[in-house]
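Final report, Chapter 2: Outcomes

The project's central promise was a pipeline that accepts a single protein chain and returns its three-dimensional structure in a standardized token representation, suitable for archiving and comparison. That pipeline is now operational. To close this chapter, we reproduce one record exactly as it appears in the project archive, with the input sequence first and the structure output second.
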Amino acid sequence: MAQADNAALDGAAAMSGTGASTGAGRSAGDDRHGVGAFIGGVVISTVGLIFVFVPTDLRFMHADVDTLKGANAHLLPFIAHGRAGFGGELMATAVAIVLLGLWGWRQGEAWVWWTLGATVAGSASALVIHFFIHSTAFIHLLPVYFGSAALAVALILGRPYLMYCDDQ
């Protein structure tokens, strides 16, 4: 019970900015990664609902919005709903990452490392599909590159702490 209370205090201190802490470890890097992912989700949802396409999409398809609307009246709403859904999924994942950083980041909690490691699948799938369809504009994929790098740093630096096992 005391460990749960300490973790809650650490999380509350981090959220309030008081700096009060019991000394249990936490990762500011994962908090920032989660906040960045949340902002990305908001941007993707907003752009997807309002504009549907970003300029790199239209350049990739060699088309403009009017041409795509003319192809099928249901095409733009269909793509917009997919972008809104993806943005929402990214925001939900971001909340989970922040919560892990606030309350789960404790020495020896290997499950946290493996859970964060599992998020690599999201970055990998985004990159694989973009390369598969040859949509590789650097600026378009920059958030994925940046997020993947931040995640890799968090996993590399956090591994010794999270995977620590005191066999005494």
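Archive annotation: The chain has one domain: 26-162.
This record, like all others produced under the grant, will remain available to the consortium after the project formally closes.
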